[in-house]
Every structure is written in structure tokens, then in C-alpha cells.
């Protein structure tokens, strides 16, 4: 950041037509994105999707092959990293081991010749509730405390834009969840624009106002966390953001409000407002926690979607819920999450059951269903590596 300049509030970020190519590989393809000032924005995606490259382009650590980066309406595409109103918090905290916590936080202020750096550093440490440890060195703190020091060091500079590159990845589960709530509270209090990069779906949904799901250098879907989860638009989003049961079937009935889709010999009803496609073969989905298990079809509420009968092939207790795998002829293996409201499983291994759910929880995705009806999750590292290799070979052939 320029010397002596504080941002009074967060600035908006605009990426216009951003493309980033490396030799033989395109990491980002024609990315257009606008992040409002003062928001908490999450870029979510698997390894290799381009999210960290995007963050590095915003920070000025990489130059785009094409396109513009604008912060607060100002084009900073050619601006050096230290001249941008941006700070970054990395997964590795990068604290100076020979300095005290107070000296670490005040370091940037002194470099920029900001008046009264010690008082401002104490204020930032109070924000993260660590002012009482100001005289300690980083090695004397826990991982979570070091993470909060790194955050205080970034926030004290009052950047218009704070970039978070998987900052909670090194913490254990309980501490990570605690820090998620603390980060959101701090962002709300200071009013800066936070851009958070992560592969952790829970992390993104817990903290962010808006989530953009990235895949293969493009944004698949963007919106509020609850909208993305309840109404995904593609197979990738449905599978990456939580779990989904997906089926393929033809649209056999259309009314003003609903579609009727044939799946495994049953008629599945879907509200038209929740359908990306309305004709031909379509991909139908429902989340596992929306399903209920029934020993007989007579116990299923009228108007509910239903599939069955099927057989329970696995029962896995996980604390707050139990996961059931149910094999239904023509529909494949269906995953059901049942909250543990009573002692013991609601259906035993090998039991014959029906699955049911409300029509309003069903969605139809934009993807054309595969010819064999089998949906393969392409978010794993091996699949991404194979896709990257294929793109590289295609680009080399076209060169």
C-alpha cells in the first residue's frame, strides 16, 4: 500500500475479461467478476481450479495474459504489489520469529511511516483478543493465536481489500470452526472487503456473504451460500458443495407449476422454478438430508416424491446423524442422512425401505445427463490432472 494511506472502508473489486495462461496451460479463461465493497466473498473450488491464481492476480503477484484488475474503480493491472491497497493472509503465517507479537503487528505501519504505530498495533491486537500477549514471540503462541496475529498484522494496515489464501488450513477442526466465526465477526466490525480462497465448503458457507464456485478456470455458479446449496445449477456444484443424489430421466409431464420426470418407474415432481431444463432427458437431484426412510409406501405423505422399494446396504453412525446407503433398482445407490433423534438406526442393514422427499426439495440441473446414467465426480485431483493434461495437449497441437 502507498505510504501513509489508510482505507476508511472496503473497496469493490472488478475483474474484467481476465485470462491467465502459463506455458501449455490456461489457468483462468475470460473471468468476469465484481465483488461489492465491504462484503465477505469466497472463491471456492478444488485444487487446480484457478482460485489461488485469481488471488495472486489481484495481489499483483502474477500478471494477467489479458483483462483488467480494478480496485475501487481504479485500474491496477500494471501496478506493483506494494502499491496496491491490498494485504494478504496466507496459510503459513509468515510471522517474524525474532520480533514480539506487538512488533510483528506494528512492522508494516513503521515501514509506511504511519503515525503512532504502537497504539494502532495494540488496537488491532485488542480486535483479535490478543493484546494481553503483545510481549510474547510467535513460538510461544498456539497455531490459532498465530493465525490471529497474522490477521491483526493485515487488518492494522486498513487495506481496501484483504485477501485470505486458505488461512485456516493448518488448524485443527474445532479451532478452525471457532476461527470461522471470529473472522466473520472481525470483517463485520472493520468493514473491509474480504476475498477468501478455500476448498473447504463448510468454511465458505459459514463465513461468506457470496460464494463463487470455480471449476477449470471458470465460475460455475455464484450467489448466497444457501442459494447455491439449495438450488445448484450444475452437476459439479451439486457434488462439490455437499452431496447430492442425482438421477437421469425424461420429462413426461409439464404443467404451469411443475414438471413430471420418470425415474426408475416412478413419477418425480419438480417445481418449474427449480428446473434449469424443461424438456427431453434431464438430470434430477435431491440432497441426502432431505430424504426420509419408510418401511412401507403407506407411511409416505401424500404428494411426496418416492422411490422404492430398495435395500439398505450400509449404515454409518456419525454422531449427529446416520448415513444410510439404499440400493434401488433403476435408480442406483441413494444416500440418506437421518438425524439421530432417537436411539438406534431407523432402518437396519438389509432392510427393505422406500425413500421419500418433498417435491420442493428437488432440482433439475443444466447438465445433459450422461448416456449411461452414471454421474462421476470430477473434483478429485486425478481427474483434474487428466483434464489439465488434455487441455495442455490440445493447446500445444493448436500452437
TrEMBL record:
InterPro entries: AAA+_ATPase, ABC_SmlMolc_Importer, ABC_transporter-like_ATP-bd, ABC_transporter-like_CS, Mo/tungstate-bd_C_term_dom, P-loop_NTPase, PotA-like, Transp-assoc_OB_typ2
Catalytic activity annotation: ATP + H2O + polyamine-[polyamine-binding protein]Side 1 = ADP + phosphate + polyamineSide 2 + [polyamine-binding protein]Side 1
Source species, domain of life: Bacteria
Gene3D superfamilies: 2.40.50.100, P-loop containing nucleotide triphosphate hydrolases
Enzyme superclass (EC): translocase
EC number(s) per entry: 7.6.2.11
Molecular function via GO: ATP binding
Pfam families: ABC_tran (PF00005), TOBE_2 (PF08402)
Entry keyword set: ATP-binding, Cell membrane, Membrane, Nucleotide-binding, Translocase, Transport
Domain named ABC transporter: residues: 13-241
Subunit field text: The complex is composed of two ATP-binding proteins (PotA), two transmembrane proteins (PotB and PotC) and a solute-binding protein (PotD).
Cross-referenced NCBIfam families: potA (TIGR01187)
Record family assignment: Belongs to the ABC transporter superfamily. Spermidine/putrescine importer (TC 3.A.1.11.1) family.
Function, in words: Part of the ABC transporter complex PotABCD involved in spermidine/putrescine import. Responsible for energy coupling to the transport system.
Protein known as: Spermidine/putrescine import ATP-binding protein PotA
Species annotation: Leifsonia williamsii
Gene name for this UniProt entry: potA
Amino acid at each position: 500500500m502507498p505510504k501513509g494511506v489508510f482505507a476508511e472502508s472496503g473497496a469493490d473489486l472488478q475483474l474484467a475479461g481476465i485470462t491467465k495462461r502459463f506455458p501449455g496451460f490456461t489457468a483462468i479463461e475470460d473471468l468476469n467478476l465484481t465483488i461489492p465493497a465491504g462484503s465477505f466473498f469466497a472463491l471456492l473450488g478444488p485444487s487446480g481450479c484457478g482460485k489461488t491464481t485469481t488471488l495472486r492476480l489481484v495481489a499483483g503477484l502474477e500478471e494477467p495474459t489479458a483483462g483488467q484488475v480494478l480496485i475501487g474503480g481504479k485500474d491496477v493491472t500494471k501496478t506493483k504489489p506494494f502499491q496496491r491497497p491490498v494485504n494478504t493472509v496466507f496459510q503459513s503465517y509468515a510471522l517474524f520469529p525474532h520480533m514480539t507479537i506487538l512488533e510483528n503487528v506494528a512492522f508494516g505501519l513503521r515501514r509506511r511511516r504511519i503515525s503512532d504505530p504502537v497504539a494502532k498495533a495494540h488496537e488491532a491486537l485488542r480486535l483479535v483478543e490478543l493484546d494481553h500477549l503483545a510481549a510474547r514471540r510467535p513460538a510461544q503462541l498456539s497455531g490459532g493465536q498465530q493465525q490471529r496475529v497474522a490477521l491483526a498484522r493485515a487488518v492494522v494496515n486498513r487495506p481496501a481489500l484483504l485477501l485470505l489464501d486458505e488461512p485456516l488450513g493448518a488448524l485443527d477442526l474445532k479451532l478452525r470452526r471457532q476461527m470461522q466465526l471470529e473472522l466473520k465477526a472481525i470483517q463485520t466490525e472493520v468493514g473491509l472487503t474480504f476475498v477468501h480462497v478455500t476448498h473447504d465448503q463448510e468454511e465458505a458457507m459459514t463465513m461468506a456473504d457470496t460464494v463463487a464456485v470455480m471449476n477449470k478456470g471458470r465460475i460455475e455458479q455464484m450467489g448466497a451460500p444457501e442459494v447455491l446449496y439449495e438450488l445448484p445449477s450444475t452437476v459439479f456444484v451439486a457434488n462439490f458443495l455437499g452431496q447430492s443424489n442425482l438421477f437421469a430421466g425424461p420429462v413426461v409431464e409439464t404443467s404451469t407449476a411443475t414438471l413430471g420426470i420418470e425415474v426408475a418407474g416412478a413419477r418425480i415432481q419438480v417445481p418449474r422454478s427449480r428446473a434449469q431444463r424443461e424438456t427431453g432427458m434431464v438430470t434430477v437431484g435431491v440432497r441426502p438430508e432431505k430424504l426420509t426412510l419408510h418401511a412401507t409406501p403407506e407411511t409416505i405423505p401424500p404428494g411426496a416424491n418416492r422411490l422404492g422399494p430398495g435395500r439398505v446396504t450400509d449404515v454409518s453412525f456419525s454422531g449427529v446423524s446416520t448415513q444410510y446407503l439404499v440400493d434401488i433398482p433403476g435408480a442406483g445407490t441413494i444416500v440418506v442422512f437421518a438425524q439421530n433423534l432417537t436411539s438406534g438406526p431407523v432402518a437396519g442393514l438389509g432392510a427393505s425401505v422406500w425413500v421419500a422427499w418433498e417435491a420442493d426439495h428437488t432440482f433439475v440441473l443444466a447438465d445433459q445427463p450422461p448416456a449411461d446414467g452414471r454421474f462421476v465426480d470430477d473434483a478429485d485431483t486425478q481427474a483434474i490432472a487428466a483434464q489439465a493434461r488434455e487441455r495442455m495437449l490440445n493447446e500445444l497441437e493448436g500452437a
